[in-house]
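Lab notes, practical 5.
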Amino acid sequence: MKKVVAGAGTVLAGGLRVATGSHAGKTIYISSDHRGFLMKKRLVAALRRRGWKVADLGPRRQVSTDYPLMAAKVARAVGRSAGRRAAGIGVCGSSIGMMIVAAKVAGVHPANPPDIAGARTTRRHNNSNYLALSAERTPFKRALAITLAWLAEPFYSDPAADRRYLRRYLETARLDHQRGGSRAGSRRGSRRGHARKRSFRNAVRLGQHR
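Output from the prediction step:
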């Protein structure tokens, strides 16, 4: 088993504690829908063999699964520390659905790079902490290579040269705090959110959502 050398760190910038370095040493959360299930299963095994700490959040069987529910599980695990202690991987048929959902969660910066170069760039330039993969458009060997490159590539490894990337990351991260007034939201916003959830559940019971 190849040992993973911890490479994650943090820096305080713009009033935010920002994850720096690589994803080494973090917990890697992963999930899929039914279309990405087999690739997810192979990725989990391959990463664990290489020494990564992987938490598989499901599904456990290849049955019809709604990608928003599975993507949100991983995104929330990553967002709790804004990627300082965790990174996420989501696998679906196209990768697009997983990425759309992950982008809704504060603290999550998703990417779906098409190749190794893109994986390295989105880490080095964007500090992405959620990787979306396409099970139907990406062969497993290439998906694994993309994943390994993405996990290993550091962010803000050279403060003098990477200052502009940190500035752009902060500009992006601050958008989380502009949603609904604050990241945590107000009590009024929370009540509205619960009301919307109740309305959605009622609509599902009535068969209005297909």
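Observations recorded by the TA: The helical segments are 37-49, 67-79, 96-102, 116-124, 140-152, 159-178, 187-205. The chain has one domain: 8-160.
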